């Protein structure tokens, strides 16, 4: 069985992101149905910020640059996290992590491989949806609570992961999360998004 990857922490990053934008606690004039439909149409976007990952065994933090184009995810990590110049690429089925001369590829269709290889159990395929403030498709919604604005989620639970959307900001015509916490059992991911670049298709 392969050993745990030295860039294990970096993989966690695909969990997530969030926080701090130009305008806090915005309101929308849309219904949840209209707002969520617009989020589903948002398939090309980029975000940057900071994240912190916590478990009983590990504690990491990093700055990130995330770009999404359909199912294609590209992520660049820098700062602490014990690594530098780490890039991640996913086509929705596999995840390739590159750090200098080291390259590792994981099968995302195997729900247990990430934990076996890195020691982290993370919802990588759901993250691009959660970051936008949208439930991930194909996963039962266990809990969904709107905030003061009924078009914006405050709490979401899927696959026993609980996502708290703590702040939003307006970016052009889109209202997107800027701070969120993702938690299941003893694993917690906190994210701050400094900036979103959103382009609806």
Please outline the helices and strands.
Elements: H1 8-12, H2 32-41, E1 44-54, E2 59-69, E3 72-78, E4 86-90, E5 94-99, E6 102-107, H3 113-118, H4 127-132, E7 141-146, E8 153-158, E9 161-171, E10 174-184, E11 187-199
Antiparallel strand pairs: 1-2, 1-11, 2-3, 3-4, 4-5, 5-6, 7-8, 8-9, 9-10, 10-11
Key attributes of the depicted protein:
mainly beta, 11-stranded antiparallel beta sheet, globular, single chain, 201 residues, outer membrane lipoprotein receptor (LolB), chain A
Q: How would you describe the overall organization of this protein?
A:
The protein is mostly beta strands. The chain has a single domain, classed as Lipoprotein localisation LolA/LolB/LppX (outer membrane lipoprotein receptor (LolB), chain A). The chain is 13% helix and 46% strand. It has helices at residues 8-12, 32-41, 113-118, 127-132; strands at residues 44-54, 59-69, 72-78, 86-90, 94-99, 102-107, 141-146, 153-158, 161-171, 174-184, 187-199. An eleven-stranded antiparallel beta sheet has the order 6-5-4-3-2-1-11-10-9-8-7. Strand 3 and strand 4 (86-90) form a beta hairpin. The chain is globular, with a radius of gyration of 16 Å.
